[in-house]
Design goal:
two-stranded antiparallel sheet, 4 helices, 8-stranded antiparallel barrel, Cyclophilin, 19% helix, alpha+beta
Length: 187
C-alpha cells in the first residue's frame, strides 16, 4: 500500500488531489423593479462566466435595460440603453451550450444571434422550462451559465411587464423601461 501511495505522490502532487473545483461566483443585479442574485457556474461555463464578469467589473451593464421580455419565455437584457441603442462590444463568446446545463426556469443563459458563437454581453433569464433552447445533435443551443438564486419574484415581475414594439424588437420591449442600475459581485 505504501508503494502505491508513493507512486501516486510522485505522479500527482498532493496539492492537486486536495484542490476543490473553482468556487461559484454570485452577482447581484439591481433593477428599477428590484434586485435578484445569480449564482454563476464557472466550472461548466468558464468562457461565458469570464466574459460576463469582465463586463460586470467594468460597469458595462449599468444603465442597460431589459429590452426583450416575452411572458412565459425569457427576460433578456444587458446590451441596449433605454433609447434602444446597442452599447459597443469588444468580442464574441464561444458557445458553451454543450456544458450539460439545461434551459430550465430560473436559469441564466447567453443570448446570441443565429450564428452559434455570436453571444456577447446580452443575457436572459428563463421564465419557464425552455428545452428548445438546449443543444441538439444537429445544432448549437443557447449556453446556460448561471441560476437565479434569490429574487425570482423580481424576475417574474420583469417577465410580466407590459410590452410594445420598439427599435428592432416586435412587441417585446417593456413600455416602462426596466433599467439595470448595477450588477456587482457578491463576496
Amino acid at each position: 500500500m505504501r508503494l502505491i501511495l508513493a507512486i501516486l505522490c510522485s505522479i500527482v502532487p498532493l496539492s492537486a488531489l486536495s484542490q476543490d473545483p473553482p468556487p461559484d461566483t454570485r452577482v447581484r443585479v439591481v433593477t428599477t423593479l428590484g434586485e435578484f442574485v445569480i449564482r454563476l457556474d464557472p466550472g461548466r461555463s468558464p468562457r461565458t462566466v469570464e466574459s460576463f464578469l469582465k463586463h460586470v467589473d467594468s460597469g458595462f451593464y449599468e444603465d442597460t435595460i431589459f429590452h426583450r421580455v416575452i411572458a412565459g419565455f425569457v427576460a433578456q437584457g444587458g446590451g441596449y440603453t433605454a433609447e434602444l441603442e446597442l452599447k459597443p462590444i469588444e468580442s464574441n463568446v464561444f458557445n458553451e451550450s454543450g456544458n450539460g446545463l439545461s434551459n430550465m426556469r430560473g436559469t441564466v443563459g447567453m443570448a446570441r444571434a443565429n450564428e452559434a458563437h455570436s453571444g456577447t454581453t446580452q443575457f436572459y433569464v428563463n421564465l419557464a422550462d425552455n428545452l428548445d433552447l438546449n443543444p441538439r445533435p444537429t445544432r448549437w443551443g443557447y449556453a446556460v451559465f448561471g441560476t437565479v438564486e434569490e429574487g425570482m419574484d423580481v424576475v417574474d415581475q420583469i417577465g410580466s411587464a407590459a410590452t410594445a414594439g420598439g427599435g428592432p424588437f416586435e412587441n417585446s420591449v417593456p413600455v416602462t423601461p426596466i433599467v439595470i442600475e448595477s450588477v456587482e459581485r457578491l463576496p
